Amino acid sequence: MIGELHAALDASDERRVLVFRGTGDGFSAGRPHSSGGHPGGPEAARKALNDVVRMNVRVGRWKAPTVALVHGYAHPLPFTVIGELLGIRPADRPDLHAWFQVLLTGWAGEPPAEAVEASAKIVAYLRELVETKRRSPAEDLVSVLLAVGDDDALTTQELLSSLFQLVVAGHDTTASLIGNGVVALLDHPDQLRALLADPGRLPAAIDELIRFTAPVPHATFRMAAEPVALDGVQIPAHEQVLVCLAAANRDPARFPDPDVLDLGRGDGPNLGFGHGIHYCLGAPLARLEAQVAFETLLSRYPGLRLATERESLTWAHGDGLVLRGLTSLPVVLGPIGGRDNHIRSIVN
Prior knowledge:
By secondary structure, the protein is mainly α. It has helices at 2-6, 14-21, 43-57, 69-74, 76-86, 93-103, 113-135, 141-148, 156-187, 189-197, 202-212, 245-248, 283-300, 340-347, and strands at residues 66-68, 222-223, 228-230, 233-235, 240-241, 305-306, 330-332. Strand 3 (228-230) and strand 4 (233-235) form a beta hairpin.
């Protein structure tokens, strides 16, 4: 069943990618209309983000001195957004999120029984979601894809596999960016102080965090369409290839002092969101999610610190190759910062 989720993914099949590009800004901005139009820029996504922020950081919400930041903040925030965009009912989201968390937990060797069971439940749910939207289209991305696919541009298997990828890419990678980024900032207090002193640097800081502590260090597997020589290595046709994005983002010929976290770095774009036709469709949304998450957390809790030893933190997602995220991140929030009025303006 796990294989069923990925059977339709073919890196050489640009047709499927072009169908997704044809949906316009539905991946990157607000909630798409089933008629093909897309409203409101990023405001629809920001509203969904603010709903989660309101639930998690309103006054008195986090009363315990220690908070599980990954599970209590980083994951619920983007999962709510992707749920809104795909038209997943709020009542269904806790179960779906739990199944994905089981499936994305690292393991060695063959998938354990619980991962196989979670995969089967995800497939069944996505299949039912597609059939529901086919019968009753709504203003969501699944309905848009079904409308675009009326001319058989996407098979059902391709659509199911693509929806799976969208849920993973739409929440897990952003959640990992938030968790990884918080740790990187705590590891570099000078950079954290500079960011707190000048919140206007946040968009550039997010790009640097993506470069420095990537939630997706490797691209998904590719297949060589024809024989090619790369840096003196011969790659035969049809050979599987794994592209290390994290290595490219630490290339000293491209980024001076690449192992240094520098939130003021002005070296241009990195490959954290891929490149070309495979560039991440949700990059603007991911940046928006990360910006709201960091802006809210750090301005309200500027004294945030780890609640455990740094050495005890572990990163393990899926096969541990394509994805890189924290299994947990216990933090002490500290006192509420002086810019609480700014946070109130975001979440109220």
